[in-house]
Amino acid sequence: MCRRAVIPAAVAALAFAAPAAATAPQTDVFTRPAGEAGVTGDCDGAPIAARFGVTIRRTLFFEAIGQVVRVRRRIALDGTLTNLDAGTTVAVRGMRVLAETGGEFRATGSGVHFVGPGLGTVAIEAGIERETADHYLEHGRRNPFTDKLCATLAPS
Q1: Global pTM?
Q2: How many CB atoms lie within 10 A of CB 68?
């Protein structure tokens, strides 16, 4: 058989071959309304309480034989931070994406941010974390109690 006939025959065979049966991703959504406020830190000695609601969208990804190969969680936060001594409150929001693949864990996103008067959007926790069996990397702002947040929550 000549090469010219083999190539079209091979292409035709591939066109009619059954595709590999892949399992579609599975997504679940969990929502928890804001609960009781809890003290999470301080600004110049004044206790700061956080109160968050959370929505978690978890997606499972599968390989062809149905084994989970990746888990992604998209976490949306919506809440408040309150200076308990002054009674001042600021609305805060955030987005975090957690991904687990094989032996790696990765967290990325804005963490938490607020919009302050004259400040615009201020990230008070943001960055990336990545962990494997051999290595841990953390990059970004991990201390939420910044000077801008504390100034916004200070007594008027």
Answers
A1: 0.70
A2: 12
Tokens 């083999």 found at: 6
What are the backbone dihedrals phi and psi of residue 15, each rounded to the nearest 5 degrees, phi first? -65, -35
Structure tokens belonging to residue 126: 């943001």
What are the tokens at 119? 């400040």
Given pLDDT bands bounded at 50, 70 and 90, which one contains residue 102? confident
Q: What amino acid occupies position 134?
A: D
Beta-bridge partner residues of 115: 121
- CA 110 – CA 126 distance, rounded (Å): 5
Check if the beta carbon of residue 90 is closer than 8 Å to that of residue 80.
yes
User: Could you tell me if 128 and 110 are in contact, meaning their C-beta atoms sit under 8 angstroms apart?
Assistant: no
